[in-house]
Amino acid sequence: MKFIYIYLMFKMELRKKYKELRQELTSLEIEGKSMLIANNLLKLNIWDKTYYHLFLTIEEQKEIDTEFILQILAGKDKEIVVSKSDFISLEMTHYLLTDNTKFKKSEYDIPEPINGLHVPVDKIDVVFVPLLAFDFKGNRVGYGKGFYDKFLSRCKPETIKIGLSFFEATLIIEDSNQNDIPLNYVVTPEKIYII
């Protein structure tokens, strides 16, 4: 079993390093690790909620395949919320996923709903959060645009925030600040971090 530990790094360094590590993963590894993450999520005590926000996989970025989580949520008859990103305002608009929801890839290869029923942020109970790296305090490194920081800051205080990562924690993200919204959990293929 190969674990990668990187200590005391800045967000920019971590972003670069983990993008490179992700690019080294094969399709088979991504599928296997994504399935392990989904199985670990089943161990969390989060399944009594109603509205679950899920990001849709950007395949070109070799992100976690969230299809397995989507199947779990559908199997448990949960309300699934997906988002559309506005790269001018850096805001996300949230929509209920239904059988009629149509998707289109944005210019950044993000699968996004083009229609649907709007869901207010204060309805969302659980957010599955994409990330590139994270530390033991629940700080995360994303792509750097701040979409999720804005979104999570507007969620109700009791909203459960769960990061999903192919890799294990780094010790400290040196340049975390008070605007960063810490996660409650991070789930990897190997373990569950409770923050």
Round the Cα radius of gyration to an integer and report it: 16 Å
Number of E-state strands:
11
Helical content stands at 10-25%
In percent, how much strand structure appears in the residues?
Answer: 15-25%
How does the major sheet shape up?
A: 7 strands, mixed
Mean pLDDT across residues: 90
Q: What sort of overall outline do the alpha carbons produce when their principal axes are compared? A: globular
Number of helices, counting only DSSP H or I runs of 4 residues or more: 4
Q: Structural class per helix/strand content?
A: alpha/beta
Q: Characterize the quaternary organization of these chains.
A: single chain
Query: How far is the N terminus from the C terminus?
Result: 24 Å
Uncertain segments are none
Please write the string of helix (H) and strand (E) elements: HHEHEEEEEEEHEEE
Strand order within the widest beta sheet: 3-2-1-6-9-10-11
Structure description:
The protein is globular. The chain is 23% helix and 22% strand. The strands form 3 sheets. It has a 7-stranded mixed β-sheet, with helices on both faces. Strands 4-5 form a two-stranded antiparallel ribbon. It has a two-stranded antiparallel sheet with strand order 7-8. Strand 7 and strand 8 (140-141) form a beta hairpin. The two termini are 24 Å apart. It is of the alpha/beta class. It has 4 helices and 11 strands. It has helices at residues 11-23, 27-41, 67-75, 147-154, and strands spanning 51-53, 79-86, 91-96, 103-105, 111-113, 126-130, 133-134, 140-141, 160-164, 185-187, 192-194.
